[in-house]
Amino acid sequence: LMFMGACSSITVVSDYDKSVDFTQFKTFSYYGWANNSDQILSPFDKERIEKSFGAEFAARGLTFVKEGGDLTVALYIHTEQKQQTTATTTGMGGMYGGYGGYYGYGPRWGWGGGMTTTSVNTYDYTVGTLVCDVFDTKEKKLIWEGTGSGEIDENPASREDGIPKTVGQIMAQYPVPKIKA
After folding, report:
1. More exposed terminus of the chain, fewer Cβ within 10 Å: N or C?
2. 3-state SS class at 106
3. What is the pLDDT of residue 138?
4. Which residues contact 5 (CB under 8 A, 6 or more apart)?
5. Backbone phi, then psi, for 32, in 5-degree steps?
6. Coil vs helix vs strand at 27
7. How far apart are CA 51 and CA 46, in angstroms?
8. Cβ count near 19 (within 10 Å)
9. Is the pLDDT score of 4 beyond 70?
10. pLDDT at residue 126 above 80?
């Protein structure tokens, strides 16, 4: 899968349980990828996503443990094919009235009959949606969900930088801010 590289064009949405004190949690574990959605990822992109989320949680004071973390993190990715059509109209010429007569009354002369052209372009693209669900392990309850959606970048070189930026934008809405070093 070619993941979102141009992170400035993603849409991020999150929601959380406002009754939960997120500062009480100290460790996190990965549940894995929901519905085996990671099967559409290359091994490189899967590792980039997991490492990026790990770094974001660590920057918020959480320590990764293989099993039994205070929080359980589940990831999910979905893709959808879309099509966009754009139309551009350009014009040339048009009416010219060089003389308006006395106080705007009177004869007008000039040339007219302009020309317009409309170009219609259609292109196919893929939208990727990355979801991060965070559960309170003890309560077995969803407490935060962050989602980022955007057009998938097909350039492998940009994914190395783009994936951490995309994950950073999703995690920017997490209830605990990054700890300043």
Report:
1. C
2. coil
3. 96
4. 153, 155, 158, 159, 161, 162, 163
5. 125, -160
6. strand
7. 9
8. 6
9. no
10. no
CB atoms within 10 A of CB 7: 21
Give Cα 69 distance to the centre of its chain.
28
Distances (CA, A) of 54 to 27, 28, 103, 104: 11, 9, 75, 73
Identity of the residue numbered 171: M
Q: Are 111 and 85 in contact (CB under 8 A)?
A: no
The token pair that represents 168 in the structure block: 């950073």
* pLDDT at residue 2 greater than cutoff 50: no
- Per-residue pLDDT tens digits for 147-174: 999 888 777 778 888 899 999 999 999 9
Q: What token pair was written down for 14? A: 């999150």
Higher pLDDT, 66 or 157: 66
* DSSP H helix total and E strand total for the chain: 2, 6
Side chain identity at residue 174, one-letter code: Y
Across-strand partners of 14? 146
Helix/strand/coil (H, E, C) string of 47-92? Answer: HHHHHHHHHHHHCCCCEECCCCCCEEEEEEEEEEEEEEEEEEEEEE
Both structure tokens of 114:
């302009």
Taking residue 178's Cβ as centre, other Cβ atoms within 10 Å add up to 14
Each residue's pLDDT tens digit, 5-31: 444 488 999 999 999 999 999 999 999
Q: Which residues of 96-122 are buried (b: 16+ CB within 10 A; e: fewer)?
A: eeeeeeeeeeeeeeeeeeeeeeeeeee
Given a cut of 80, whether residue 91 has pLDDT beyond it is no
